Amino acid sequence: MDKHEKKVTINYLKSQKGKSKLTMITAYDALFANIFDGFVDMILIGDSLEMNFNGRDDTLKATMQNMIYHTKAVCRGAKTSYIIADMPFGSIKDEKSSLKNAILFYKKTKADAVKIEANTIPLSIIKTIVNNGIAVVAHIGLTPQNSRDEGGYHVKAKEENEAKMLIQKAIDLENVGASILVVEGTIASVAEKITQSVKIPVIGIGAGNKTDGQVLVFSDAFGFYDKFKPKFVKRFLNGKELVQNALFEYINEVKSGKFPDQEHSYNG
């Protein structure tokens, strides 16, 4: 498996559009970040950690303090992949407070970019953050932070009018300086049109395979989180089962006295 030898930059990511598919995976700590580092193009510290790491029912309780803590940990474990950190619910309100929060992320962590759920926020907020030297990844389509307001998680762009609005939103976000787009839970043909309509990389999740790349939550992709499985998730590993099997073996060896043996003991 090829691995990046040099730090992945936004210029590299943009250069791959239409040439080679890009990969992104989530991580919340230094351990997994180090495992993924360099093999994937991008690592996302997603507010999905509230569900997968903290056992919440949604992402809305993520705080700036918590996201910064996990971003610091990921940055300690990953030195090569491009690092993107989610701006949590409530951190993007108006230009002044949004810029303050984005700057705080940049000052406190080594993240390369912040990700903002951008369906409904004013374009001026994105522009202000970008103009202050902070790279923005704009997230459109199904945006989990709006799930409570929208009564759940619903596939986007089923209707022609909504599809047109989403495509235009993508174009507008590129025009105000967004570096990358994440398109989630969107009809595949619309995500393809979005990808064709902008010059910046478009990363899909539940948006078909015609985008410039894909992102998945690692605990979904590797079978550690099994409370539910979205349609777009493919499990590449039965992680929970494998870990539990190893745990059961450990327990049995301790109880039987098989572990620790002579090899794993200090003998005078």
Core attributes:
magnesium ion binding, about 40% helix, 8 strands, alpha/beta, 10 helices, 8-stranded parallel barrel, TIM Barrel, about 270 residues, magnesium
Strand order of the largest sheet: 1-2-3-4-5-6-7-8
Largest sheet: 8 strands, parallel, barrel
Low-confidence stretches: none
What gyration radius follows from the Cα positions, in whole Å? Answer: 20 Å
SSE string = HEHEHHEHEHEHEHEEHH
| CATH-scheme architecture of the largest domain | Alpha-Beta Barrel
User: Regarding CATH, which class of the largest domain?
Assistant: Alpha Beta
The CATH topology label of the largest domain is TIM Barrel
Structural category is alpha/beta
How many distinct helices? 10
Report the end-to-end length measured between terminal Cα atoms.
44 Å
Portion of residues within helices: 25-40%
Judging from the principal axes of the Cα atoms, what is the shape? Answer: globular
Give the averaged pLDDT, no decimals.
95
Number of domains: 2
Care to count the β-strands? Answer: 8
**Considering the protein shown, what is the CATH homologous superfamily of the largest domain?**
Phosphoenolpyruvate-binding domains
Strand content: 5-15%
Binding site for 3-methyl-2-oxobutanoate: 47-48, 86, 115
Protein name: 3-methyl-2-oxobutanoate hydroxymethyltransferase
EC number: 2.1.2.11
Subcellular location: Cytoplasm
